[in-house]
């Protein structure tokens, strides 16, 4: 039966959180809609950074409508923090901003070269017509 955006397969299946915590997954488990058994690493990241109790509290404080987004955000932030313990998401944002800056510079240089070549062609056409 569907729960949130994931499917529970059978009555005895546990979500990734309950599997990780080695406990029974109840029908009203706060984790099951957001941490499917098919993706155990998703909960492992979140648990490592925030702890299961804190994640449960955070999800309970958010409206049901926003829980999916909150779980996605917690996962992304935890994954970034595990991959880059010093900077986390800020490191990712910084790298992306540098890429944007470098690409904008490259575009500006390319536009300048195009203008230079166009100007050169215009001068050649002008001097060829003038003779």
Automatic annotation (TrEMBL):
<comment type="similarity">
    <text>Belongs to the LOB domain-containing protein family.</text>
</comment>
<feature type="domain" description="LOB">
    <location>
        <begin position="13"/>
        <end position="114"/>
    </location>
</feature>
<protein>
    <recommendedName>
        <fullName>LOB domain-containing protein</fullName>
    </recommendedName>
</protein>
<dbReference type="InterPro" id="IPR004883">
    <property type="entry name" value="LOB"/>
</dbReference>
<dbReference type="Pfam" id="PF03195">
    <property type="entry name" value="LOB"/>
</dbReference>
């Amino acid at each position: 039966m569907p729960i949130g955006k994931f499917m529970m397969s059978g009555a005895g299946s546990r979500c990734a959180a309950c599997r990780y915590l080695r406990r029974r997954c109840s029908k009203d488990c706060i984790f099951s809609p957001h941490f499917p058994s098919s993706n155990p690493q998703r909960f492992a990241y979140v648990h490592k950074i925030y702890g299961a109790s804190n994640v449960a509290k955070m999800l309970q404080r958010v409206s049901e409508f926003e829980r999916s987004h909150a779980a996605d955000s917690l996962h992304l932030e935890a994954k970034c923090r595990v991959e880059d313990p010093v900077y986390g998401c800020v490191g990712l944002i910084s790298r992306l901003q540098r890429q944007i800056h470098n690409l904008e510079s490259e575009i500006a240089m390319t536009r300048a070269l195009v203008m230079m070549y166009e100007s050169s062609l215009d001068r050649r056409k002008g001097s060829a017509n003038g003779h």
